[in-house]
Specification:
The chain has 634 residues and is an alpha+beta fold. Keywords: ATP-binding, Chaperone, Cytoplasm, Nucleotide-binding, Stress response.
């Protein structure tokens, strides 16, 4: 085919602009990114050759070669990995042809320094070549194919793809260096970069120098798999750079977990917890990014079941000695050895998180801010195997503390007579703290968990046994009988009356109003009751004991999983001035249109406090105007 000129996808143009201006604090890491991609290409071909040995016939020794031409001012990096077809060239270098593209682009904020942290996670480190080059050529031939192809671009908006000649499989990247980047043609400079960033790459990296006798290859890296070495032989810098390679990330790891399991099943594991939340963490596919190796041979970086979904933020490598090299990816998921490894890895990771939570609570709080919503998925999906450990790891914001609180902390602070762990679910802690449902709990000094993650509505439904025998109870559903709880602003009955006698008197006063409100509102509400949770607000809406919690229903309706809203219970505060006034009017026989208008105004007020829209804004405005008119006329 003739050279075909194409335009970069809009998202790629954004990336190139960010790369050119502020992606890296040091330009030298372009070489790390290109070597990492070349290593991945070799890994992929090594795996395919297990079932198709012809792909590597005559060239079975994988390597990455670097050559510098000072006269032409070009730096070349080549590999004999899997190579690319013309379609793959376009998908990999001209567009972002990966699931999660939309999520990735939506994360780009326009703040180039902030966006820089997202780019590496997306696996597009190739574009870093344009930091040091004003023209890049990619000559590639896919293993098993006859045709080669050439991709060329100056990184300014367009690229061309044409047919080309190449004897062997693999990829050659030629960078025409900018005048201020000629330092990257020096052998010592390149050697230093490789040693610093890519010494752990398990593929030989060779510097090719021209001599009178021809070409001379010099090894630049140790070329042994980092995870197979003893921990005492690995520096913190080497661990960090392997994380950058394995995760395609620019942040530093929050935690590094390296161990070798021996016994019935042998495997090595080098796993990392990122500091920064990966952009695709909540993508519907929920894929993990831990690479599976068998006897140092890369198998896949998308092995379902290797780690549970709620640990999908993990990055790194698991290398097993007890799996057959030619096992298919489909059979892997059902392999009992893999299932045992998954269980053991999960247990080890949760154990390390528990130690961190206990010894470094402030650092653990940073982890929880980034990955807490994902961890809570385990409480919903993991069954019983790790539930106790997960419950000990969960942290909450509450009404009583500015710091994150564990369930153990909460249980130790429970009031005398308190039998449940109370919680409220909503969109933000700030909104929840203003909820009228909290009033009675605040008055009693009862701590309430403030939950704001969508998963909270679901994992709590699976907590049938509660925590250490204490059930979880939503303060927006069912009754809130706080009488048994000791402490707080317990009110004394007036005139020396006994508690029970005072309650009967109050009930008798409010009963006619409750009956009138039920009659006026009809099927709009499920019931009208006197509230034990309100102290300042006149009304609130709650879900009845057996009904769906208010926030869960709202969530399902937003996602079109539920069409019709369930009528709620309207609770009224018998001590509030508005309610007292209405009760007196009803007792005096004034139960006409004014009372009906007041009933709907109270209902709409309760809806607004729940963050919901009133169903009939025009009627609400009319009733509000009439009420103001009557009030101002007094």
């Amino acid at each position: 085919m003739t050279a075909e000129k194409r335009t970069f996808q809009a998202e790629v143009s954004k990336l190139l602009k960010i790369v050119a201006n502020s992606l890296y604090s040091e330009r030298e890491v372009f070489l790390r990114e290109l070597i990492s991609n070349a290593s991945d290409a070799c890994d992929k071909l090594r795996y395919l050759a297990l079932t198709n040995p012809d792909l590597t016939t005559g060239d079975g020794e994988f390597k990455i070669r670097i050559a510098a031409d000072k006269d032409a001012k070009t730096l070349t990096l080549s590999d004999n990995g899997i190579g690319m077809s013309a379609e793959e060239l376009n998908d990999n270098l001209g567009t972002i042809a990966r699931s999660g593209t939309e999520a990735f682009v939506s994360e780009l904020s326009g703040d180039e320094k902030k966006d820089a942290g997202l780019i590496g996670q997306f696996g597009v480190g190739f574009y870093s070549a344009f930091m040091i080059a004003d023209k890049v050529e990619v000559l590639t031939k896919r293993a098993g194919e006859a045709k080669a192809h050439l991709w060329t671009s100056d990184g300014l908006g367009e690229y061309t793809i044409s047919d080309a000649e190449k004897a062997n499989r693999g990829t050659i990247i030629t960078m025409h260096l900018k005048e201020d980047a000629l330092e990257f043609l020096e052998e010592q400079r390149l050697q230093h970069i490789v040693k610093r960033y890519s010494d752990h790459i398990p593929v030989p990296i060779l510097f090719v120098a021209k001599t009178d006798a021809g070409e001379e290859e010099k090894a630049l890296n140790e070329a042994s798999a980092l995870w197979t070495r003893a921990k005492s032989e690995i520096s913190e810098e080497q661990y960090k750079e392997f994380y950058h390679h394995a995760a395609h990330a620019f942040d530093d790891p929050w935690a590094t977990l390296h161990w070798k399991a021996e016994g019935v099943i042998e495997y090595s594991s080098l796993l990392y917890v990122p500091t920064q939340r990966p952009f695709d963490l909540f993508h519907p596919e929920r894929k993990n990014r831990v690479k599976l190796y068998v006897k140092r041979v890369f198998i896949t970086d998308d092995c379902e079941g290797l780690v549970p979904e709620y640990l999908r933020f993990l990055r790194g490598v698991i290398d097993c000695e007890d799996l057959p090299l030619n096992v298919s990816r489909e059979l892997l998921q059902r392999n009992p050895v893999l299932q045992k490894i998954s269980s053991a890895v999960t247990k080890r990771v949760l154990s390390e998180l528990s130690k961190k939570a206990e010894k470094e609570p402030e650092e653990y709080a940073k982890f929880w801010d980034a990955f807490g919503p994902v961890m809570k998925e385990g409480l919903y999906a993991d069954g019983t195997e790790h539930k106790e450990t997960l419950l000990s790891l969960v942290r909450f914001k509450t009404t009583e503390s500015d710091k994150l609180v564990s369930l153990k902390d909460y249980a130790e602070r429970m009031k005398e007579g308190q039998e449940a762990i109370y919680y409220i679910i909503g969109e933000s802690p700030e909104a929840l703290l203003n909820s009228p449902h909290l009033e009675g709990f605040k008055a009693k000094g009862v701590e309430v968990l403030l939950l704001t993650d969508p998963i909270d509505d679901f994992w709590l439904q699976a907590m049938f046994e509660g925590y250490e025998g204490k059930p979880f109870k939503s303060i927006t559903r069912g009754s809130a009988d706080l009488d048994a709880v000791k402490g707080g602003a317990d009110e004394k009955p007036e005139d020396g009356k006994k508690d029970e006698e005072a309650k009967q008197d109050a009930g008798a006063e409010i009963a006619p109003l409750i009956a009138s409100l039920k009659l006026a509102l009809g099927d709009t509400v499920k019931d009208v009751r006197e509230s034990k949770r309100l102290t300042d607000s006149p009304v609130c809406l709650i879900a009845d004991e057996g009904d769906m919690d208010i926030n869960l229903e709202r969530l399902l309706r937003q996602h079109k999983q539920l069409e019709q809203a369930t009528p709620r219970v309207l609770e009224i505060n018998a001590k509030h001035a508005v309610i007292k006034t209405l009760a007196k009017r009803v007792k005096a026989g004034k139960t006409g249109q004014e009372l009906e208008d007041a009933a709907y105004l109270l209902l709409d007020q309760a809806r607004i406090m729940e963050g919901e829209a009133v169903p009939d804004p025009k009627a609400f405005a009319r009733r509000l105007a009439l009420a103001m008119e009557r009030g101002l006329a007094v």
